[in-house]
Specification:
Layout (H helix, E strand, L loop, with lengths): L8 E5 L4 H12 L3 E5 L3 H5 L16 H8 L7 E4 L14 H29 L3 E6 L27 E8 L5 H7 L2 H8 L10 H12 L10 E4 L7
């Protein structure tokens, strides 16, 4: 299926590993020109063939983010994928874990979306934003009190479509760190009707669809990629 992404500029945060890295490669394969954002320079250097620009910045730092991304453009498509995960029991949540989670998982999404939206409005161009959220934003999970605060669709000006994907567990490095315990994994798998965790490609394919004109009538939506978890 032709997604008609060729020649369009896409910015992907959290591009160094996992879902973000796969999104960068898929967008490049679809003909898009990609700006990959990560806080780890070595990860960006390994994507040199796939990307047109590689800003290295810690999105938890508002001023550094503004300086690194304020002049990037023109951007047509944005994937807010960067996230951190501190899995702590509710009564043991620390200020440090909360602050870092808030700064990266929430505040940075708003800031980067503002930067891209201002550019689109100045150009009078339509655009698309996809936020990579989680099933945990809609259903309480043990030890996910902080991580559950992920951003689903944000209200932005018309002509900019904004949607979110809400995956179940995906066995990225972050997913493996959180769900490598077989007993813990089984408890989650037993709640997923399809009986398996998501592959990275399942999430990437959904994101590509939402970025493309094939979803031109879809905005303000959350799209579960969860094997039926939220339906149970």
């Amino acid at each position: 299926m032709d997604l008609r992404l060729a020649g369009r500029w896409a910015l992907v945060t959290g591009a160094g590993k996992g879902i973000g890295r796969s999104i960068v490669k898929a967008l490049h394969a679809a003909g898009a020109r990609v700006v990959a954002v990560s806080r780890t320079q070595a990860d960006l250097d390994s994507l040199v063939r796939e990307v047109g620009a590689r800003p290295c910045v810690d999105l938890a730092d508002w001023e550094a983010t503004e300086q690194a991304l304020g002049g990037v453009g023109p951007v047509d498509l944005l994937v807010n994928n960067a996230a951190v995960a501190f899995l702590q029991p509710f009564l043991e949540v620390t200020k440090e874990a909360y602050d870092m989670s808030f700064n990266v998982n929430l505040r940075a999404v708003i800031q980067v979306s503002q930067i891209v939206a201002r550019g689109l409005i100045a150009r009078g161009a339509p655009g698309v934003i996809v936020n990579v959220s989680s099933q945990a934003s809609q259903r309480g999970l043990t030890n996910h009190s902080v991580y559950s605060h992920r951003v689903d669709p944000l209200p932005v000006p018309v002509q900019i479509r904004v949607n979110a994907v809400n995956p179940t567990v995906v066995m990225t490095p972050m997913g493996q760190a959180a769900w490598s315990d077989p007993q813990k994994a089984k408890a989650m798998l037993d709640r997923i009707p399809l009986g398996r965790f998501a592959e990275v490609e399942n999430v990437v394919d959904t994101i590509l669809f939402l970025l493309s004109d094939r979803s031109s009538m879809t905005t303000g939506s959350t799209v579960p990629v969860d094997g039926g978890f939220l339906a149970t």
